[in-house]
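Annual report, structural modelling task.

Input specification for the guanosine-5'-triphosphate complex:
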Amino acid sequence: MDSDMDYERPNVETIKCVVVGDNAVGKTRLICARACNATLTQYQLLATHVPTVWAIDQYRVCQEVLERSRDVVDDVSVSLRLWDTFGDHHKDRRFAYGRSDVVVLCFSIANPNSLHHVKTMWYPEIKHFCPRAPVILVGCQLDLRYADLEAVNRARRPLARPIKPNEILPPEKGREVAKELGIPYYETSVVAQFGVKDVFDNAIRAALISRRHLQFWKSHLRNVQRPLLQAPFLPPKPPPPGGGGGGGDPPSNNEERPAHLLEDPLCADVILVLQEKIKIYAHKIYLSTSSSKFYDLFLMDLSEEDQQSAAAGHGHVAAAAERMLHQEERHHGRDFLLRAASFDICESAEEAGPGQRQPCLRASTSDGILRGNRYEGGERGLRRGRNLSSWSRAFTSIQEEMAEDPLTYKSKLMVVVKMDSSIQPGPFRAVLKYLYTGELDENERDLMHIAHIAELLEVFDLRMMVANILNNEAFMNQEITKAFHVRRTNRVKECLAKGTFSGMDPARPLGVHRVWGQSSCFCSVPPLGFWSRFAVWGFLGLFFPPDKVSVKPFPCSPAGPAALFIYRRAAKGDFLLSQPGFSHEGDEFSHFQAWMFIKSYLKQRELCSTSS
Ligand SMILES: Nc1nc2c(ncn2[C@@H]2O[C@H](COP(=O)(O)OP(=O)(O)OP(=O)(O)O)[C@@H](O)[C@H]2O)c(=O)[nH]1
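The model returned the following structure:
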């Protein structure tokens, strides 16, 4: 592994950054956020604090950590090496301070003592061991300034020291100390994912400036700026008055509620099959942003199974194949017709009222979901699939299949996931509702079964919610729901940024774009020549101010006819999804709407960042 290669690369500046501060101020979490892109889980947030030190050898043993250490700041390629330390005042930190380029000195904005120790203990210690290293002051756990402290204290372990409102420090306190010491000041929150980049980019700047003084011949450092001022944190809006529950997350418009998407599966792209006959339509984006198991499942390479079975030869893979064959037989066997007929009965009888039976609970032509698979051969054998019994106890198989959309009745490519036979439909729906909304109804009947499914799917927060209800502590679930939304918001943003799950059909890639003005017009066209694009632009200019019109060619070659898409009602910052060859009717438009739901969800969470 190229662990220390960075030290030898001529134009890469390797920077040793030591992070110090009192116990439990958030040093390790801050480091993990930068080095491993880690966010705080509900458990870590509520668990009793155990002093930990992030091991420096991560740069040697973990390629991803090493890669994340590399960055470019003010045109300088750097490799940032973070050193965690113990917060215990009596520990010897000489080893960590040695040859450090910059020191990040942390305190917690919810602990005035930790700020006091910055002046009385930490700054003198730093100046003693590394007098030349620049220092950056960081106020951690910034989110606690805006949190409902009563709820936070209630949710923490009984022995944890409660956070008192009068202990929360305003930003001026930190700034005052920083000014007194003559060092820059930043605030961060790992929970709200704020300020982490600010701190380390500016720590790098401080280190590079100091290096420039000593190594004046290094001309590539000439553009390095002094540490910059931090943009203010925009706190989330308080819940609307009279809104009732403290969660404050469901979008106001009923149609935009994620739970609504489960009942009325607009643009579903997944079919979950229970007990071989019950089908539930769902959405990859919702499942995978709230459950890592589903995330891994949907990102799984479905074409891998061939190689695997070849490699494994016998054993469970063969058994799995045999099992698949049995399923096949059953699909083709005498009970096939019976089962096909039973979809309607089973679903509608179970849940839907007489009025709502129609769209989502209908049997679709994807009854052939396993008939058309590659185990059977033939021309539809191109569809990819995988047996999952050895991968997870929750799933039996996954497969791509042409199936009928439950709302538009059009045939389209869907992912069909067969769930383990121990999973019961009623509790499974409650689990799905949690995955869509982060909520669990206290009065849910079969809590034990819900807990069982949560365990199979490794949704441990839901498991905790069940335990809270059983212990008559359901009030604690509000906090879990809040953390669920923060976590999911981050995941949705990540998916939007990376384009994960943005396309349903790999043969027809989709594009996600951003709109920059009210009533502006955004238009995507297949790769046309310059004059054609100019004509389109001129045409649109008749209806919209010309400076608001943008015509962009698609990066992919279109499968369908030339098409242009005009979104009139998009607002600033909207993410739009467009695809070559679609009209405003049909399922792709629905897909577009689903992304609009997601976007409005982000907006509603007030965490929708301005960057796309
Ligand atoms: N609310 C909130 N809690 C945080 C944040 N960062 C860390 N914490 C919590 O603060 C506690 C301490 O975090 P650590 O990162 O382990 O603290 P540390 O400074 O490394 O502590 P020592 O290992 O004892 O030196 C943990 O319970 C974290 O969950 C944050 O940004 N917001």
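The mean pLDDT is 70.
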